[in-house]
Model the fold of this input.
Amino acid sequence: MMTEKNPFSSIDELMRKLEEHRYVTDRPLATVIYLSYHLKKPIFLEGEAGVGKTEVALVLSEMINTRLIRLQCYEGLDANSALYEWNYPKQLLRIKMDEQSNKSPEELGHVIYSEPYLIKRPLLEATLSSQGDTPVLLIDELDRADEEFEAFLLEILSDFQVSIPEIGTLKATHKPIVVITSNRTRDIHDALKRRCLYHWIDYPSFEKEMRIVKARVPDVEESLAQQVTNFMQNIRQQDLMKKPGVSETLDWAEALLQLHKDVLDEETVKQTLGCILKYREDILKFKTSIWADSATRELLLGDPGKRHPR
Amino acid sequence: MRPLSDGLGPNIVRFGRLLEENDISVSFSSVLDVLRGIHLIDISHVDEFYHLLRFTVVSRKEDIEAFDTLFQAFWLDNAEAVPEIPCMPDVAGYEGDPQESPHKQVSDLKSTRDNGPDSVKELSLRYSPHPLYQGIRKEKVDFVESQAFYESICTLLHPLTTRLGRRYQYTIHGKEISLRKILRKNMQFGGELVLLDFKKKKPKRRRILFLCDVSGSMDIYTLMIIQFVHALKKVDRKTEIFFFSTELTRVTPLFDFGGFPSIVSSLPEVVSDWKGGTRIGHCLSRLTETHGSRLLTSNAIVMIFSDGWDRGEIDLLTGQMAYVKRRTYKIIWLNPLLGTEGYQPICQGMSAALPYVDYFLPVTNLHDLQFLEKTLEKMVT
Done:
């Protein structure tokens, strides 16, 4: 029986495996994942919305067939919501049930502060789960959480050790693969970034975006995929408030497929504009200045079936 | 596993020092990571070596370009292709030699390989041609830098810059009970809930984004407003400051590190087109493009100090004001002309921006700023 090759044995192997799981990557991104795995450091991914940051973690967990533990950050996220919390209603019920049992307060304390009453949050899950295999921990949109949370995260990421006074210290035997993403709505503190390998994911090149469309929406016609990609590459050059990302490209290709369109024409663009532009000002600008200019319109629509020069 | 060649370790350290000299912070642990990572990559591939260095050392997108340039110059000896290193001019007020060409700077960079720290320093100094630079007329406004002034700004801004966050803190009085605390505290009574504990939302500061017009028409107010901004920065170090005329310049770093006199002397050199014309719409669009996602948030307060004499595109100004209004908490427009008798905001820039302004206030001197207090109080009640 042939043994499966370790996907992290080389950068080339990693790229091949990622592509097998329909994640089109480039060498820099594969290198940062490879280094992160071997140096046991978290990956810190920044980039515009919709360029595939979160997807990295999803694909990694799928690729190595392990659990994905996701911590979605938000303002006010604190240690209790990220690490562990006691199940208070259950504890209160237990106290009521034991009212007549003559248990001493110490004994009762041991009962209600034990594992059955513990609610495990993502960071504790990641620590406990890594006692078996190596899970992937995704800390998504860290910029939404506040600075206090960053300080707490620093502590956890350094040794994946959790101390619960009543239960004891739990330490991960295999450090999880950690992927942190940020949309840069605020700067993350350098102290945290220094503990990570930093990578900025840019909008993809024409060739890469074409490969992504073909991998993710395989049913789309080659010529339509080319037109859509060409349109997106060129519209990102325009002065827009929110430039569409790759996720918009995929949504649009999927939408065109559902509408049984095989060519991108002026009418289709107008009908499906909502898939790519999400701001009223951008839509207005597109209609009044970008689309109104015949040269830009031609550039955006490209020539179906022909590779458009960029 | 490949053995380290003799000179590589010290060279990496030297490269780290070069990055540090160019404002790219390099920690000791990241140098160690590079040394560990060398065993994992194929050192004969320059790309892999480049990526290893970049991923471990660089932690901000803005540093990538400067890193690339320094990498090319240091490791590949590719001096010809090296563009000028983007650095902030020295705060101490260096007046560069106009004859100094970028090639001179590149040769300085190369010489850092021969342990020439002084030459690296020179690299961060740039010649900045400002044809309209005439300095700040200090004699026009009295300079008051006193503790009392900072304190009054602090009181003034307190209601504005505070909001309720979503993080809780424990209190002995309040409306929301804290089960976590209560259960622990009452275990001594066998779980009987005798003592109560509460929690409430913790106040959080709002961020102020101060946009200051430094075009020719605003000249006489400049020193006064620099004092205000300096105080503002002391009150809240997260305040972001931009100066604009026909172009936008972020001057926050200057206020972060500089004392008042050095700020005053170096501002005209740092700010592009000092005392030039005014293109507010263009400058706002530069702001949204470059810092929009980070700074224009629902918690931010945008303060614009300008007379509204705009020579740019009015449509652009209207669109940008609408966008900023939607993205941020409040827009306060401080107009020095508003205090003048008979003034009407009819110039096209001001009238285009006005529908999007939450508070339109006069500021001609520091005393006027006291009027802000009542307005700001209203904002949070």
User: Anything to note?
Assistant: Residues 143 and 309 of chain A are 38 Å apart (CA to CA). The mean pLDDT of chain A is 88. DSSP finds 15 helices and nine strands in chain A. Chain A touches chain B through 52 residues (CB under 8 Å).
